[in-house]
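Good morning N.,

You mentioned wanting to compare the apo and holo forms, so I went ahead and generated the holo version with heme C. This is what I fed in:
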Amino acid sequence: MKSTPKTRRAALLAAPFLLLGNACRDLQPIEAPTAVEAMAAPDRAKVELGQRLFFDRQLSADGSTACATCHVPVEGGDDDRAVSLGVGGQAGKRNSPTVLNAGFKAHLFWDGRATTLEEQALMPLRAKDEMGADDAAVLAYLGRDASYPGEFQAAFGDAAISMERLASAVATYQRQLVTPSRVDAFLLGDEGALNAQEQRGLSFFRGNCTFCHDGPGVGGQRLEKLGFATEWPAERTHDLGLEERTQDEGDRLVFAVPQLRNVARTAPYFHDGSVATLEEAIQLMGRHQLGEELTEDQIADLVAMLEALSADPEPRLLQDPNGSR
Ligand code: HEC
Ligand code: HEC
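and this is what came out, ligand included:
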């Protein structure tokens, strides 16, 4: 049977929730990818081209906005706003998720409307309230630049410049933004990597939260209802989540489960950026996703564990390569 969010949710409710659900859903530790310096030349050229494009404000309609404006790699991969500002200072309606580890996500965007980074990349570039770019203008700008044609050649074997190649390079750069943390070291056998409190947080997390926040990204694998156990108060949000895309009431408040790597650095929280602290976000998860009031100690343990999930990718990937040009 095709697994739609609805059939999947129905199956989950019918299944013995704790036994089956949690047994097969867990965290998956990650390791650092091949360092850029050690890559084959064309692969390295593709990452470097993608990095330059990611930071290039000239791709936007008015030269004001790059991918990196709303996804600041050095600050956890998001911006610090509730909702992002695009060209002309226009406010969007959703909080910008981190691009760190985005390559692990099966569902991109809060409503899962893209599934690959290649498919995703051109959407914000063309969106009127984000970068507002026009394909013809982008291609003309890249073609007349002193070094972009040579960089496309190095990455793709010939100097042809296309929107598909741009998307492919940007996706390749983002796939390199992988951040193994102390939690991964612990899961891979280094028992000293986490202190006692972080370990308590981790076991609580594995027993309760990996039902939804699972896999290598600690989330990003599924679409789930906000208010799974106890209804999310209607006055808290004007966003219908997946329902806005499917027009199906059963999809109301269904969102792509966010990845929690680096979450300690990506406040404010939730699709609308309406929650300022990690403590409150966790308290609300307990109440609405687990149907449980978590104690202060449980919340503190979870915060400690989530903080231990913060880490940076290779330093060279954080810099804006356009600065020196
Ligand atoms: C004006 C701010 C802004 C700009 C510019 C921007 N983004 Fe985003 N990005 C967002 C917001 C907000 C979302 C979530 C939107 C939604 O879910 O509807 C998002 C979502 C994403 C996601 C999905 C992440 C996830 O966890 O689901 C990726 C990947 C991404 N952007 C990459 C890019 C790339 C690549 C560019 C440049 C081509 C870019 N963004 C430009 C604000 C921005
Ligand atoms: C039934 C599924 C489910 C369970 C269980 C669950 N979550 Fe979530 N979590 C979600 C969804 C869906 C969202 C996105 C909600 C939104 O933004 O509207 C989310 C969002 C979050 C966020 C905010 C992330 C961000 O970037 O804004 C944090 C933090 C979080 N969860 C932590 C936890 C913790 C800790 C637990 C266990 C105590 C937990 N969650 C249990 C589904 C779940």
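The mean pLDDT is 92.

Happy to go through it together on a call whenever suits you.

Best,
F.
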